[in-house]
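Field reference: sequence -> structure
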Amino acid sequence: MDGEQATNTDPTGQWSLVVPLKPLSLAKSRLTGAAGNALRPRLALAFAQDTVAAALACRAVRDVAVVTDDPKAAAALTALGARVVPDTPASGLNAALAHGARAVREARADSPVAALNADLPALRPAELARVLGAAAAFPRAFLADAAGIGTTLLAARAGVELNPAFGGPSRERHLSSGAVEIVLAGVDSVRRDVDTGQDLLVAAALGLGPYTARRYAAVMQATAYTYESDSRSGSVLLDDGTPVEFDAAAFDAGGLRLLRPGQRVRIETEGDGTSRRITLVTLQTF
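Structure field:
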């Protein structure tokens, strides 16, 4: 499908989106190596907040239903204006999406529905509108992820079952199910889901939403300067040459056993200026 066809279909305010979100303690497990166990759930929530906020700001979207059982995520996303649907099937991603679509249509039977990944921290409302405009031309349509293997969005017209088949090589499964693949240029933010540290770097280059940007800004690079194994404490040099000390709690939070002066590390901080303190120090992986 080309951009001209997408432009000719105006889906203003039509779509109900269904966004699935695992419990934060389990979400984004492939980010553990890059972000650590402390930051990973906070990033997962920030990704979802930016995704939902951008979706609600999209002219083509009427409402957003988030399928989750995580109370912290439910509160944060409800505050943005999303409706939270408990994951009562508790049978995995596709069961959650089908359940969410049914919940939406119980309230509004004539609603076209689209499933959208919760990990699109660079999502742009205008790009999402273009994708939904393209999807409106077909009974079922989908957008492949940036790798061309998975799926970030699956849409179904009113009266058409969503029939989601997300997970792994879902592009081929959605094609085999009869869904039409949406091929549009200039919608990178809708295709860029984040599973790894490298994905996050690419999303950052596109431009992160405010929630993820704040989390991302709290992650700094530094160089290990001193380390005392008995006390599990020491200091790092920030890239501007500023020395900052860390205590045993920050060292333990990073899951390290040893630290050698000169190693590149990733730190998380809180506070500003002279009150800045390191809350986590671990090896730099992205």
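Note: The mean pLDDT is 91.
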